[in-house]
Amino acid sequence: MSDWPPKPDSSHTPRPQDPRSPDHHSAVTQGDALQVLEKAVLASVQEQRRARRWSIFFKLLAFGYVLLLFIIMGRGCSTHEGGAVSVGSTSPHLAVVDIDGTIGSGSNDVNSEDVSEALEKAFEASGSKAIALKINSPGGSPVQSDEIWQEIKRLRAEHKDKKVYAVIGDMGASGAYYIASAADEIYVNPSSLVGSIGVIMPNYGVSELARKIGVEDRTMTAGAHKAILSPTQPVNPEERAHIQNLLNNVHGHFIAAVKAGRGKRLKENPDMFSGLFWTGEQAIALGLADHNGNVSSLARELKLDKTVEYTLPANPLESLLGRMGTSIGQGIGMSVQQRLESQQTAELR
Q: Rounded to 10 degrees, what is the CA torsion of 152, 158, 163, 164?
């Protein structure tokens, strides 16, 4: 009797693959490879997208920076050409030129070239009825101060119908007072610091300190006095006398300028030209100043409704770079250099 239903032939029944078999290992490896490849492709696409987004961001940032730079430069140029100066320049007004900060030839100093240009424009403007020097400065270079003084005198002689008023704020000392003395009249606040008619040349000696710590000065010169005022060498009496004579000579120029500007208004005082400074109230009593007041009160006194700024604007590019900190290193270097140079430079301070 035959069996029914027939039994399947065991020889044709598929057997599960042994995980240890080569065929199974090959299938698994191929699947993993596909997954890894897929992930790599997706990661590459995502990375390209991120790179593209960052590229667009930096391009927009660069464009914005350049645009901002052009806007700032454009404003600076427009102000220089006629922005602040042209506003109301044909109508009666008091022209204002600032003397604000240290007087010198540095890029950030009050210098004779910029001030002279501003004064020239102020005097030539048809609407300016008088010029106000708005002063807030401790002084500085005697050369720059004298050049501005000379320019004021020249322009006053050419424009006899326009008076110059020096208006001292917090401080009008030394070289700043040198400039103020060229004005027709000087206005001060009762608490302003005024005067300091003297000359100074800072210098320090470290020869003894250098000897104690074993530092040898090997400076070589051609010229007997080329190393004059070297901080690592003792003071030579002959050189000291020469420097003192130099300072006295510059001081004499300062005194002559003040006397020429102030004339008989100066009161007799043995300390007048000693380098001392006084309050605005005391300065009026000594004849170093004339009245109490500021730019606004002066404009009202002259019956002028407008004041127009003629001071040349700072270079906008330099200002921007300075704010961004790119000039920090240069500023430190210049500070050290100026500190060293100041030891052999006469200053009106």
A: -10
Cα distance between residue 277 and residue 285, in whole Å? 13
Q: Which of 137, 174, 192, 196 is catalytic?
A: 174
- Other Cβ atoms within 10 Å of 75 Cβ, number: 13
Residue with tokens 């490849």: 37
CA distance 140 to 234: 28
Asked if residues 308 and 128 have their Cβ atoms less than 8 Å apart, the reply is: yes
Q: If you write DSSP's letter for every residue of 235-248 in order, what string do you get?
A: PPHHHHHHHHHHHH
Specify the residue for token string 């987004």.
53
Which residue has tokens 């540095």?
106
**Mutual angle of helices 142-158 and 112-124, in 10-degree steps:** 10
Q: Which residue has the tokens 């950030």?
A: 108
Q: What torsion, rounded to 10 degrees, do the Cα atoms 80, 84, 86, 91 define?
A: -150
How confident is the model over 281-304, as pLDDT tens digits? 999 999 999 999 999 999 999 999
How long, in residues, is the chain? 349
How far is Cα 32 from Cα 38, in angstroms, rounded to an integer? 10
CA torsion, ordered 139, 142, 148, 150, to nearest 10 deg? 140
Strands 291-292 and 277-279: unpaired
User: What count of Cα atoms within 13 Å lies in the side-chain half-sphere of residue 184?
Assistant: 13
Average pLDDT over residues 230-257: 93
The residue among 332, 300, 298, 310 whose CA lies nearest residue 186 is 298
In the predicted model, is pLDDT for residue 83 greater than 50? no
How confident is the model over 198-233, as pLDDT tens digits? 999 998 888 888 888 998 888 898 998 898 888 888
Catalytic annotation on 226? yes
Q: What pLDDT shows up at residue 168?
A: 98
pTM for this model (two decimals): 0.70
Question: What is the C-alpha separation between 316 and 71, in angstroms, rounded?
Answer: 10
User: The tokens of 344 are what?
Assistant: 């052999």
